[in-house]
Amino acid sequence: MSIDLAHTPATAARAAEPLLDIRHLAVRYRTNDGHIDAVRDVSLTIGRGEKVAIVGESGSGKSTTAHAIVHLLPNAAETHADSILFDGIDLATASRAQLRRVRGARIGLVPQDPIVSLNPVKKIGAQVAETLIVHGLADRKSAAYRAVDALEKAGLPEPELRAQQYPHELSGGMRQRVLIAIAIIASPELIIADEPTSALDVTVQRQILDHIDLLAAETGTSVLLITHDLGVAADRADRIVVMNQGEIVEQGTPAEVLGSPTHAYTRALIAAAPSLNAAGQVERVLEVLDPDVAARVFGGRAGEPFVARSRLPGAADATLAPAVLSARNLVKDFALPRASGGGTQRAVDDVSFDIPRGQTFALVGESGSGKSTTARLVLRLAEATSGTIELDGRDITRASGAELRGLRRRIQLVHQNPYASLNPRLTVEQIVADPLVAFGLGSRADRRRRAAELVDVVALPRTALGRRASELSGGQRQRVAIARALALNPDLLVLDEPVSALDVSIQAQILGLLSSLQSSLGLSYLFISHDLAVVRQIAHRVGVMRLGELVETGDVEQVFSASAHPYTRALLDAIPGAHASGAPVIGR
Amino acid sequence: MTETAALVAERPPRSDEDETFASTASDRFADASRNRANPSRSARGGLRRLRRIATRHPGALLAALWIALILLSAFAPALFSGQDPLDGVPADKMQPPSAAHWFGTDQVGRDLFTRVVHGSALTLQAAVIAVAIGLVVGSLLGLLAGFIGSWVDDVIMRIADVLLAIPSLLLSLALITALGFGTINVAIAVGLSSVAAVARIMRSEVIRVRSGVFVEAAFASGNRWSRVLFRHVLPNSIGPVLVLAALEFGTAILAVSALSFLGYGAQPPAPEWGSLVSTGRDFMATAWWLTALPGAVIALTVLSANRLSRALDNEGRRSR
């Protein structure tokens, strides 16, 4: 890419001053429940050619800060700033026309969600070329050529073909590259990337971030990277800015921030980030249940919580097989829609594994690897095309009717998205007691009592019982989902990405809860995840899936330290922060 | 096929756009902002909600008052008028509206206001029965069609298509010829003609809700499909149907009045809004009030029902 001569710093003095200088930015949102100070008094500079990462959890104000720079906030936002100086222009007081000249041409924005950020009825090439045309930087014909160039620079294979396609024909990773192409085509001096890869698989994330790095290095472009992932920030930025509750709590080089964090929030964030910590080093509140509570709440038989059993939960039973569930040669074919030519697609291909009793077996893989489908087969929410599933030595592959419903007493499920997995019309008490009502267990008073006990076990306040799910936060909702799954005293919990929709600090709490439940109650887990760092913390055995096949199975330490399969190693390499935790100095 | 496999449609493996960290970003942001919002103003309550509707939509408040008045007149007509709807004073016949006779008098000297007040009972009774029939039958059919899918869906929806293809008044007329005359039969006919519309709305809502994760969670918890349907799917899909019911109430009043006007409903001398307009028609040139005033009452009631339905719809959207 040729550097636009007009934009190169003319004098040394100009080069010394920062490209972007935000002084005392504050943003307030008006909502129905009053107002929220999303950003309070943020001052930030970005030098020329510098890569700055803003890290923070949801609601910390990081995205709001980024969008305030280019005035792309919703109408409900009030912005106050002493100045937002971008190369001498004060964006805080700039007119619409001035802003238009800056947006796209001199500041490129890569939005968060590649799925909804492209116009579905326009061809890719036209959307990329649009920036050049609206800024009068090229005529229609040369803009089309440069769009293909930009797509190639953004790392899209076959850019000529892609330019002629529509967004729905491209995968998520490809669409993210298109958004990058749109951001870079006018050779801006600053690229604002708002969570550019959080919707993508780790291997794709790595390629895309590598590419942004490469482009920035080639052209001397400054980058403002917004991310929730401290590991990504540590790998990619020259300077990390940590935000919490609308304020900057700490900033410095990655080595400074990660090596000697001064603020308590930063330390908590680092402690919670799975990618920055090797196995077992994550500080988790691992409160083992009081044996009395465990005996009282989980003293009943499996599937019959109100009937006492002689054996205490968690106590080993030598008469049982070592595997609670074994799957043998599972195959699942999906029929493709007739419109796309019919035929079948093999989602799960000859998968065999054992779930050890009282331990966690994790299935890891990227999207489309068939790990969720495997979980659904085990739960019998989907029918296996062939293969067998045995629970405690009993074949349940073709169980139906009453037998299948009986299975639900033994195997329960926790979904990925706690915002969608709870019935919005019911109270927490009704949700937790729902499996008990479904099987007609206990009296109304018994069920109420059990719901209250379970809510206690998952460390929610009693007052939550009467509230609806919509009044709780994501982490609290996931606790409710876990309480519901425990209601019937199951032996096996299937955890389908139970923490991937949550912020890291909440993730750490939920993982802590799951491990303490396991150690107190002897539960077995089938843990589905795309995040190897999380798996390393919680799993005993790991299976790595790729394109429907189980490419590797083994003990967690063996898979992580001496993996036999190249795909597993590629996945491990792509974990962000892996470089940071080993080497203290990150530089270019 | 097993119970769950038969009911939960098999989906191909999800692609990466489903439920990732990014797709729930707005939910987490809402959590964070709720945590930090000024808590003093976040008190909730039905009364507060009502007050907000009243101040923001004064039209809806007026509409609600009018409907309340009409309902009251149906149950206790004596509160509004002390006169007899059937006994006329021949000396006072064909008087225009005045302080003594608000709506004037008819050709045999009966007070028209009294007849309208007493007539509301018959009209409303028919409208309520009609809406109830349309709501219950339509919801049930829509629920089954949307939840079971496959051939059940096809059969129910093709029948609904046929019903929708016939103008509803024509359909009601055809049904009345089969059932016979009378207010109740009119109500049944009008109700059945709205079944198709209700079933369609219900089906589309059920299809939306059925694919929700919490429905799968309900199956995985061990619920029988009937319980999933009535405990988890129905309450989450009934909202738009209730809004439609309010709308149908207005339409039903219009349809019942129209059929009575044509002479299929209440027989004279029993007062009924449609038949009042119909008998007044003979004196249109000399006594405008005999048609205009009962007609205006019908129009106002239908408009009020529409306005109320819109307010309900807006509220439903806010809380969804």
Strand order in the sheet with the most strands of chain A: 6-7-8-3-9-10
Question: CATH class of the largest domain in chain A, anyone?
Answer: Alpha Beta
State the helix count of chain A: 22
State the helicity of chain B in percent bands: 55-70%
List the quaternary state of the chains. Answer: heterodimer
- In terms of per-residue confidence, which ranges of chain B show pLDDT below 50 for 5 or more consecutive residues? 1-18, 39-43
CATH topology of the largest domain in chain A: Rossmann fold
User: Which word captures the global form of chain B?
Assistant: globular
The chain pair forming the largest interface, with residue counts per chain, is:
A-B, 75 and 52 residues
Strand-residue proportion of chain A: 15-25%
CATH architecture of the largest domain in chain A: 3-Layer(aba) Sandwich
Distance between the termini of chain B: 35 Å
Radius of gyration of chain A: 26 Å
Textual characterization of the structure:
The complex is a heterodimer of chains A (588) and B (320). With 588 residues, chain A is an alpha/beta fold. Chain A is 35% helix and 24% strand. Chain A has 2 domains: 19-273, P-loop containing nucleotide triphosphate hydrolases (Rossmann fold), CATH 3.40.50; 291-336 and 343-428 and 487-582, 3-Layer(aba) Sandwich (Rossmann fold), CATH 3.40.50.300. In chain A, a hairpin with a 2-residue loop joins strand 9 and strand 10 (247-252). The two termini of chain A are 21 Å apart. Chain B is globular, with a radius of gyration of 25 Å.
